[in-house]
Design goal:
Elements lengths: L1 H22 L3 E2 L5 E6 L8 H6 L4 E8 L3 E2 L3 H10 L3 E7 L5 H15 L8 E4 L8 H19 L3 E6 H6 L3 H6 L1 E5 L16 E2 L1 E8 L8 E6 L24 E6 L6 H7 L4 H8 L12 E6 L10 E8 L6 H7 L4 H8 L12 E7 L9 E3 L6 H8 L3 H8 L12 E3 L1
Parallel strand pairs: 1-9, 2-3, 3-5, 5-6, 6-7, 7-8, 8-10
Antiparallel strand pairs: 2-11, 3-4, 10-11, 12-13, 14-15, 16-17
Helix pairs in contact: 4-5
């Protein structure tokens, strides 16, 4: 009798344990069988014929960020990816700190992709929270998701790392959007994960992929069948809520006597960016009548000839322009010019300012970044589009998991 009771108790324990394991597992919704990449202006010009021939089937393209930044490569990436038979999707990098801003960003994103025909569900990339609390994060995410659905009549998914999937996003967000997981370990053995999602339809498994046709590293992904839209018809036109976004692509016809250096200087860009955007192999060889695509920004003031990106920074208690300028490798005067600040000594917490980051590879200069509470090297690396190993190497960090608030990193 005693043995029988023990056996029953043992089986009950095994049964309960298996239920707990099942509830707390995070696994693919179905087989991950579609090879993919996700790209932005960071990759420059991409030869999609080589990408297609390498076995890539899906490409997610950055369309926009905030309410003013249109990725300068979104149109050419879309055209060339579609021309080579790749399945295409778009993502938006969210910067909103209020529900109202989330609505504005949703409208901006939808306006950038309107008129395009794409195959994959739209993506909310929300990983930089700018000091808002968990409840606000979820309200903002939900507002963006619902507004994009209203404007485009397309499904939306959330891109998230494992930490935020577990501790930040709630069940309401999960019920309205499926998950694209960023996880660089064994994503098929995610047990005891307490997440609002119990499955994902895509996984970004490395940020250091190598794909023919792309210079340097690129994010590599795997997707299941659920990544594709039920309805891939073109979305209706969506009005742009602001015509003052950072970048636009213009067509410039080369004139006799032009050089790429002179053209780059005229439009506030670089020779290398023009070469990348147009697939020019010899920067000394252009000819009259040739039409070049050029990214330009007529709203930038100050020293931006070497600018490579734009950051929307929310001022925090204790900040001053001098410390902020040091953190991002620029000058107080540049920040004043870019933002029309009349009194450099008068800034306030919650104020949002624009900072244009500069190239660091060509002149051996680096950004200075001050670690904030909640930061980790993975998130910082994604924010600045470099690898964790590179940050660790530059700063002599032996344990990438050991960083602390207030620490200044060279990036």
């Amino acid at each position: 009798m005693k043995n029988k009771i023990s056996k029953i108790l043992f089986l009950t324990f095994i049964f309960c344990f298996s239920i707990v394991s099942y509830v707390y597992a995070l696994s693919p919704q179905s087989e991950l069988r579609y090879q993919g990449i996700d790209v932005s202006d960071w990759q420059g010009y991409i030869d999609y014929n080589q990408v297609k021939n390498s076995g890539i089937e899906v490409v997610y393209i950055k369309a926009s960020q905030g309410v003013r930044i249109k990725d300068p490569y979104v149109d050419i990436n879309y055209e060339n990816a579609k021309a080579n038979g790749l399945k295409v999707g778009f993502y938006h990098f969210l910067e909103a700190t209020t529900v109202q801003e989330a609505y504005q960003e949703a409208s901006f994103f939808s306006s950038i992709i309107s008129g395009k025909q794409f195959d994959c569900k739209l993506v909310l990339d929300y990983e930089q929270f700018n000091g808002v609390n968990r409840e606000q994060i979820n309200q903002i995410a939900l507002a963006f998701i619902q507004r994009v659905k209203e404007l485009t009549n397309k499904q939306v998914i959330v891109y998230s790392d494992l930490s935020n999937a577990e501790s930040t996003f709630n069940s309401e967000v999960a019920n309205n959007a499926e998950l694209w997981l960023a996880y660089y370990g064994d994503y098929l053995k995610l047990q005891n994960v307490n997440s609002s999602w119990n499955s994902f339809i895509g996984v970004q498994y490395t940020s250091r992929g190598n794909v023919p046709g792309i210079r340097g590293n690129v994010d590599r992904d795997l997707y299941s069948q659920e990544i594709f839209l039920d309805d891939s018809t073109e979305i209706p036109p969506v009005e742009n809520p602001t015509d003052n976004f950072q970048t636009e692509v213009i067509n410039y016809t080369v004139k006799r006597g032009d050089t790429l250096g002179e053209i780059a200087s005229r439009f506030g860009t670089t020779v290398q960016k023009i070469a990348d955007l147009n697939g020019i192999k010899n920067v000394n060889l252009i000819y009259p009548g040739e039409v070049l695509r050029i990214t330009t920004n007529s709203n930038v003031h100050g020293d931006t000839a070497n600018a490579t990106g734009k950051i929307i920074y929310t001022i925090k208690r204790g900040d001053n322009l001098w410390n902020i300028s040091r953190r991002y490798g620029t000058t107080v005067q540049n920040i004043v010019n870019w933002n029309g600040i009349r009194n450099p000594n008068l800034i306030y917490p919650g104020q949002r300012i624009v900072i244009y980051t500069r190239a660091n590879e060509t002149n051996n200069q680096y950004y200075s970044y001050t670690v904030r509470r909640g930061d980790n090297l993975w998130r910082i690396a994604r924010r600045f589009r470099v690898s964790v190993n590179r940050i660790a190497s530059l700063n002599g960090i032996q344990n990438p998991r050991m960083i602390y608030p207030g620490q200044i990193l060279k990036i």
